[in-house]
Amino acid sequence: MAVTADQIVTAAIHHLNEHPTASMAELAEAAGVSRATLHRHFSSRDDLLAALGRRALERWQQAQDAVGLTAAAQESDGDRLRDTLRELLTALVEVADEHGFALTDHAMGVNPDLLHRSDELEEREIALFAAAQRAGVLRADLPVRWISNTWYGLLVAVRESLRRGDVARRDVAGLLVDTFFEGTGS
Amino acid sequence: MAVTADQIVTAAIHHLNEHPTASMAELAEAAGVSRATLHRHFSSRDDLLAALGRRALERWQQAQDAVGLTAAAQESDGDRLRDTLRELLTALVEVADEHGFALTDHAMGVNPDLLHRSDELEEREIALFAAAQRAGVLRADLPVRWISNTWYGLLVAVRESLRRGDVARRDVAGLLVDTFFEGTGS
DNA sequence: ACCATTTGAGACATTAATGTCGCAAAAGAG
DNA sequence: CTCTTTTGCGACATTAATGTCTCAAATGGT
After folding, report:
1. Residue A1 pLDDT > 70, yes or no?
2. Nearest nt to B34, CA vs C1'?
3. What phi and psi, each to the nearest 5 degrees, are found at residue A138?
4. Are A31 and A9 in contact (CB under 8 A)?
5. CA of A27 to C1' of D6 (A)
6. Considering the entire predicted model, what is its pTM?
7. Which end of chain B is more exposed for a tag (fewer CB within 10 A), N or C?
């Protein structure tokens, strides 16, 4: 098989990141595949979009697993919690940049399965935030879900910064971590 | 005239905030108007979308003007700059909530006129951020455009928080200002 | 009550994307 | 080399939304 389904998904994500309204024909071309072959792999557009969503969630979960999120959420040591947050944020930079369009796209919010998995991953992070609050690493006076949405919003800022070339790729993780913890005031 | 163009724009914004892919027929219904009448006011879908964009930019500019952004950007007094930032952020909560879908929608990024006006408004804020950096109100070690994107990202967080009911409407401005300046770390 | 204007309803043509199919060419396994 | 599978290409039907048009109803001002 010259081009696998995974490769099509990758190409589609890359293309949709720059052309969010691309048609199936465009996505086929971007993957270097005919429209018929694209339909052989993904029977419908929704099917393809769902695969993109699954890929994004998969990467997100991998980032969580790589830093041992679940174990860390049981942690009470502040320094280790802070490190976990830092590492996770750094790992999520790549996810946000690579799968960014899934971050804001509307087509994602209609698939109950994806929505459910997304909620689960979010809850895992929220558990980490709550642990960090208990350990005094994150402010306890902020609603934990506000922290979660802040976290998400800053990833949108990352994506936008990279897309527009506002900051160098090698600097962005540091800025993100720094801003998340310290804010912009001096 | 029972229903004005402005009222249609208002209804369309409200509807699109919850149903981002709504058709012209849906938008007509949401405005309590026939499809024909909708087309009498806005000859095409792009025309309507452009009107929504103009409305959003208008509100954004009003928020800037209301706090005297241009004058403040010439300011060197830290306390006053901080106040201006606070007031602007507070005013933008409403804009983000009301015109939020324009914040992330792709249809907006293709109209050169809107894009140009949007860049102008953004540059005005960047001038304010730069003044705040010089006055020691905002950290000078952060790229000013990163601050701008952070600002934007936090407004996305506001919109999301309100949409999901994660935080009370009366609390959100305070959380936003607080998080912007101080971050989430303790 | 009368007239001018606006509206709603429905029909219509157009357009663009989607998904299906068949067949010939190409690729790959043995 | 041969046979099997996969691919590309083009044609096709379907669908959904868009934008235009006409005409009768109703709205509103005087």
Report:
1. no
2. C8
3. -115, 150
4. no
5. 20
6. 0.94
7. N
